[in-house]
Structures are given as structure tokens and as C-alpha cells.
Amino acid sequence: MIYTNSITGVNVYDVEQGSDDWLNSRLGVITASRAHDVIKSGRAKGSYSEARKTYMLELIAQVATGRLPEQSQFKQAAWGHENEPLAREAYEARDFSCVNTCGLIYKDESMRCGISPDGIMEDRGLEIKNPFTTQVHIETLLNGTIKPEYLTQCQYSMWVTGLERWDFCSYDFRMRGSPENRLVVIPQYRDPEIMAKFDEEIPKFAAEMDEQLNKLGFTFGDQWRQL
After folding, report:
1. b or e along 41-54 (b: 16 or more beta carbons within 10 Å of the residue's beta carbon)?
2. Residue ranges making up the domain that contains 101
């Protein structure tokens, strides 16, 4: 794991998520929330999804402009951000643990892959979801239902950090009854098959992205340089 952006010199582990330094350090980087788009198959056998192409173009644009697009603040996203600290506190109380927070972790010196964990400990990390609608939380609580892209997010986080466990957490403070109704924790463990897929598909994605950047006269890293 790498904590410093070698081009800007910023220690990304210590930056606050959502800050300008954090946003800048994510430019052009394949992140956990979009890892599912990278490996998602298309309808035809052996093809990729349109989401993969779209995501690659987004990252290319970030490198070429040195900017992130303006983010629309949806009420669902605001809800999740506001309630994340409550979920983390509930997790700490449940497990009598101390959860650390950090800004960004790069997988290696290439800085092509990175994650911004919702919580990190020596032996595991956290992926926290705070559903805007309680029905979604109840579905996870009763049936253990987790969206495929969230499962990929957890696996990608383990791939980047090398950890063996990532706890998926769904939290809804509106639920009455026992504390277990408010916080559901479903541990996810490293899946060798998915790790192998990342080992194959992520470098392939990065190589294709580099080819397209080269056609435009850019290289990865230019997003952090004064051109």
C-alpha cells in the first residue's frame, strides 16, 4: 500500500475525504466504487459493458483536464455522508473496536488504483452503506442481500490493501428494537477467483486507457502536473 502521491507530494492517507487534496489525488484513479464497471461483461460473449467504456472516458477526461466534473449533490448521497459517522460508532460499540479513518490508499507506486475506505483496521476494512429508504436496509437485514457492485467494491478494497477481510455494513438509525436492527454486518473475505480477475482486467484496462491518452498527447500523471 502507498500513502503518498509521488507527483504532488501529498500524504493522501492523512487528507480528509471530500477535501480538495482528496479530490485531486483521485483524478484518473480506478476507485472501488467503480471497479465493477471495469470488470463487468457485456451482453455478447467475451465483450465488455458500455459502463466500462464510459468509465474509461471519464478517467481520460480527468487526466486531460486535471479536473473532476462538477458533482451533483443528491439527497441520497448527502444522507449517506451524514450518517456514516453514526454507523462507524455503532460498529465500534458492537465489536469493541477502534476504527481508523483515512483519505486515500494507493495500491502501489503506479497510483493507478486506489480506495477511500469508510473505516480501516489492522486486519480488516469497512464498507458502510446508509440506505436512503429503510426497505433496502431491511432487505439486507432479513436476507443478506447485497448489490453485486458493493460486493465488487469490498473485493477490490481487499485487492488494493492486501487484507483478507472487508466488512459490509448497512446502517439505519430509524429502525427500532434491538441495536442489531440498526446495524447489520456481513463479513466479506478475499475471493481468489475475483482477485485473479482483477489481476487480469485492471492492467488491461489501464493499458487501453494509456493508448487512448497517448493519442491525445497525454500520459497518466499529467493530471497532477502543471502542463
Report:
1. eeeeeeebbeebee
2. 12-224
